[in-house]
Amino acid sequence: MEKRISGSTRLLSLIGTPVDHSKSPIMYNYSFQKAGLDYAYLAFDIPVSKVADAIAAIKTFNLRGSNVTMPCKSEVLKYMDDLSPAARMIGAVNTIINEDGKLTGHITDGLGFASNLRDSGVDVAGKKMTIIGAGGAATAIQVQCALDGVKEISIFNIKDDFYEKAKQTIASIKQEVPDCIVHIFDLNDTKKLYEEIATSNILVNATLVGMHPHENETPVKNTSVFRKDLIVTDVVYNPKKTKLLLDAEAAGSKTIGGLGMLLWQGAEAYKLFTGKDMPVSEVKDLYFN
């Protein structure tokens, strides 16, 4: 690494917390080196309370851009000079592009999720999906899947600010994709959760539940809801297989982990950063299998 860093090397970053488990630095730095691009990528542990400082640093040090992970995806919105249509609609940012001090916020989570499913042979068109969570990643998934033709979405979240924000997302989806049926329910209503899973083709965990160091936690306690024709996906990628996925696999469900989503949303962000395509197949073989 140190051999390719020069006085003109441009820095990119990841901000959020926790980030010590992130594969993004490996993925991006390998791709930069492979393409001969003079960039370097580092991860910084940034809580929501320090987002303003992080944005100031991006401008001060003239970073080319930054990825944003939980829990900062919504907080960074207020510091953007412009937003992509998807970021504006979703209300979250996971990729920041710096053009001479002007910061534009983008969101690639939904595209990454959809690409990961397609890479695993799953098409959401005409399907019913139950998704746990209503944060930035969850919202991006909801919007993208609606645009990709999912028939029905049942959203579950605790009754907090994200719950209220999800109602706005539903209104946006109904306006843009009127044929998509979307409902929101209280996550504490486990009976309703299990009823919706029973009539769904795809179940998505879009929360932090199950992430290291809480590997023994799962958002679905009743394993009897898993069945062979249910596809179970998780945005968490550390551990590679969460308790949710392990429980689902034991019941015969097809499972798709979060690493692929990270890879594909990273490929979308890489193109925003560099204008070039990431060597996805090589990165996948080297770091994601």
CATH class of the largest domain: Alpha Beta
Largest sheet: 6 strands, mixed
Record the strand order, biggest sheet.
2-1-3-5-6-4
Strand content: 15-25%
Name the CATH homologous superfamily of the largest domain: NAD(P)-binding Rossmann-like Domain
CATH architectural grouping of the largest domain: 3-Layer(aba) Sandwich
Query: How many DSSP-defined strands?
Result: 12
Radius of gyration: 19 Å
> Which percent range fits the helix content?
25-40%
Order of helices and strands: EHEHEEHEEHEHEHEHEEHEHH
Poorly predicted segments = none
Terminal Cα separation, in Å?
Answer: 23 Å
Number of contiguous helices? 10
Pathway: Aromatic compound metabolism; 3,4-dihydroxybenzoate biosynthesis; 3-dehydroquinate from D-quinate (NAD(+) route); Metabolic intermediate biosynthesis; chorismate biosynthesis; chorismate from D-erythrose 4-phosphate and phosphoenolpyruvate: step 4/7
Keywords: Amino-acid biosynthesis, Aromatic amino acid biosynthesis, NADP, Oxidoreductase
Organism: Listeria farberi
Protein name: Shikimate dehydrogenase (NADP(+))
